[in-house]
Amino acid sequence: MTAITFTLLVGSISALAGFLGALTGLGGGVVIVPVLTLALGVDIKYAIGASLVSVIATSSGAAAAYVKEGYSNIRIGMLLEIATTIGAVIGAYLAGFTSTHIIAIIFGLVLVQSAYQSLFSSNGIADNLVNSDKLARWLRLGSDFPLRGTRQEYGVQNVPTGFGLMFGAGALSGLLGIGSGAVKVIAMDRAMKIPFKVSTTTSNFMIGVTAAASAGVYLSRGYIDPRVAMPVMLGVLAGAFLGTKVLVHAPVRLLRIVFGLVIAVLAIEMIINGITGRV
Amino acid sequence: MDDVRLETFIGNLLRAGVLLAAFVVLSGGILYLLQHHAATLSYGHFTLESTALRSLAGIVHLALHGNSLGIMQFGLVLLIATPVARVALAVAGFYLEHDRLYVVISLIVLAVLLYSLIDGH
User: Fold this and answer.
1) Cβ separation A43–B45 shorter than 8 A
2) Which of A27-36, A37-46, A79-88, B107-116 shows the lowest mean pLDDT across its residues?
3) Which of A22, A180, B34, B36 has its CA at a distance of 20 to 30 angstroms from the CA of residue A88?
4) What is the C-alpha to C-alpha distance for residues A36 and A33, in angstroms, rounded to an integer?
5) d(CA A124, CA A121)
6) Which of A216, A224, A228 has its CB closest to that of B117?
7) Residue A160: which residues within 8 A CB-CB, separation 6 or more?
8) Mean pLDDT, range A197-224, rounded to an integer
């Protein structure tokens, strides 16, 4: 394959991934790595390096829009980023010692979860508002968010549990080059009792910082190759931008089902290829 | 509402950083395709030939000499730097709000990021 063919092919696939990722709210990162490795035969570590770069681009690019909505909580984000960045650095180191077959199988298992989330999860679960416990009060994590025209106050609980889960989310992100937004939302929404909308927007804000921590390690190991990362980054950015423009008119329910099925197929392929040693 | 103003400023700055990085990567990419469009690569087993593309000093050196891979990689480094700048600005913002606890917390995050970027071996 010539350089121009490869660049255009990877750019188009990445644009489609970024577009669907923005429309479904799942991010495009999860499909980039399996498509690059399975369909184009790219070495999985270079695919992960390129994916990390695209994750930073979408997270940083969307930050301003999320802040404007008034949901994200910079204190919660910053505190938990201690856990995600340390986890990400450790995950990125582990990637250097882990065989590509194992990485492919772990990736497949994470894809199974993503597919399930895309197909069956319902957004807008009723928030269970709580008062902050002692540690969260000391850390001043509670805040307020817009609800029916006023500001609704919320508290935060179980900070140590959330912190531990965030460490795992960071390690997964460093090992697989994904945003692991799903684990971040579970840590905040389920464990720390933070309202859903605050959890998802704060998670998006944190994803870029987490990915930057592992990107540094990938860069110095030589796993960020501009010939792969260039079309991935530009494609995902263009696709995500288009996605946010048409979001209002999109049949999101149908798209989530289609995207979920695609991810499910990729999950099975990744696991099979990992076990048989072809990735 | 100090937090909101701080976050809005940071958010806009991040977007500007992403656009700048994308512009640099695109410029390097166009140059690369003009020079190497017909080159064939084995993307399954290729290694980064130039170790200069792994270090900041090497990347800057290549980019300044008009090397297309160096320019693309420099753009990618700019992109990786945007979240780092975000944390550095948060340190300054919390300092201006006299929030000592969160100055310390954001400094820890900044230290981990700088460690990974500078000493990633």
Assistant:
1) yes
2) A27-36
3) A22
4) 5
5) 10
6) A216
7) A135
8) 90
- Residue A168 and residue A148: Cα distance in Å, rounded? 35
Nearest to A62 by CA among A240, A259, A242, A250: A240
Q: Is the pLDDT of residue B69 over 70?
A: yes
ipTM: 0.90
Per-residue pLDDT tens for B9-68? 878 888 899 999 999 999 999 999 999 888 887 766 656 656 888 888 899 999 999 999
How far apart CA A36 and CA A88 sit, in angstroms, is 22
Q: Which residues of B touch A63 (CB under 8 A)?
A: 10-11, 14-15, 86
Q: Could you list the residue range(s) of the whole structural domain that residue A210 is in?
A: 3-275
- Return the ∠ at Cα B71 (arms to B70 and B77), rounded to 5°: 85
Predicted confidence at residue B68, as pLDDT, reads: 94
List the beta bridge partners of residue A15.
Answer: none
Cα–Cα distance measured from residue B42 to residue A63, given in angstroms and rounded to the nearest whole number? 37
> What residues does each domain of chain B span?
2-118
Location of structure tokens 């399975």: A38
**Total number of domains constituting chain A:** 1
Model pLDDT, residue B100: 95
B62 contacts in chain A (CB < 8 Å): none
Distance from C-alpha of B93 to C-alpha of B99, rounded to nearest angstrom: 9
8 Å CB contact of B15 and A63: yes
Mean of the pLDDT values across residues A9-36? 86
